[in-house]
Amino acid sequence: MLGSLLWLFFVGLLLCAFLFSKTTKEFPKSWFEWKTEFRYQYLGIVGLVHDAQYAARDRVALYKQPDRIAVITGGNRGIGLRIVEKLLACDMTVVMGVRDPRSAESAVASIVDLKTTKGKLICEQLDVGDLKSVKAFAQLIKERYSKVDLLLNNAGIMFAPFKLTADGYESHFATNFLGHFLLTHLLLPQLKLAGKEGKNARIVNVSSCVNLIGRINYKDINGTKHYYPGTAYSQSKLAQILFTRHLQTLLDAEKSHVQVNVVHPGIVDTDLFEHSATTSVPIFKKLFFKTPERGSRTVVFAAIDPSIEGQGGTYLSNGGKGPFHPDAKKPAKCEQLFQFSSDLLKIQQYGNGEF
Questions:
Q1: Which residues form the signal peptide (predicted)?
Q2: Which residues, including other chains, have CB under 8 Å from residue 291's CB and lie 6 or more apart?
Q3: Are 187 and 202 spatial neighbours (Cβ–Cβ below 8 Å)?
Q4: Contact 86/296 with Cβ under 8 angstroms?
Q5: Which of 231, 235, 246 lies closest to 184, judged by CA?
Q6: Is the pTM of this model over 0.90?
Q7: Hey, which residues are catalytic here?
Q8: What tens digit of pLDDT does each residue of 209-252 get?
């Protein structure tokens, strides 16, 4: 009898854990959606274990770099805010591309004394999911700065309801990937001017461990036939890695002093989970998830750490190399996504800064 009760308790506990950690607040409606949720549950557990296992190496050493200019998308909350804090501590000029520049500056001012820091903060308007906004932001950067040392493609959304952007692209694909693909293309000339022998300019794409279950649906990139938030999110995160790998191949062929890396910041307690069921049990996130400060470490590590100089195309997690999707190890798969994206945006020569 006692054994049966313990078994029921265990099953009930697993069921509650599943219900309160779903990617969406709604109940799965098909086997495809159930399967997606089970995969997310598995990756979530593996991710939490990885974060705990490699906590000791999840560090970044900050050092003064007053001559460097860093451009970051987002940064007014969560991981991005703590990234900006660290870059300012390095005395850099940090340009934030955000939807609301005034509130972004206030957010940074709440954790950094902007009157005494030797770093310089500039907040400009950018909606990375809007291609016109991306173009206008890039043009502003080009007019004001002859070089860009760091580009951190950080802004993103997660598990959002279906929505098409003004340009006609699904919001995860547009915001997490395509807008950054375009921004990188437009700013690559400035990055190439900044890089030099032994001191590469760096591009950092902020991805996620869920790239492991991602699939690029070329026949229905917007997911209009069957949309599920978790699927759209993992597709956009896989796209970032395929993009990173192929872009590094092109940069190496040109012998450019620019490297691009991609980062999984960890399972982090941020507002990105606002559409998920985890909001019902905030104590769970507080207990087991990384803080935004910890989540920012590997991103900044990828941007400034000398130990990975010349190691572009690497997927980083918790201060070291991490596992990523098998497709990203196949050059043809990486090139396919790269060319598909270039065709969507009608980019004939990627990286020439023209659009």
A1: 1-16
A2: 268, 269
A3: no
A4: yes
A5: 246
A6: yes
A7: 233
A8: 999 999 999 999 999 999 999 999 999 999 999 999 999 999 99
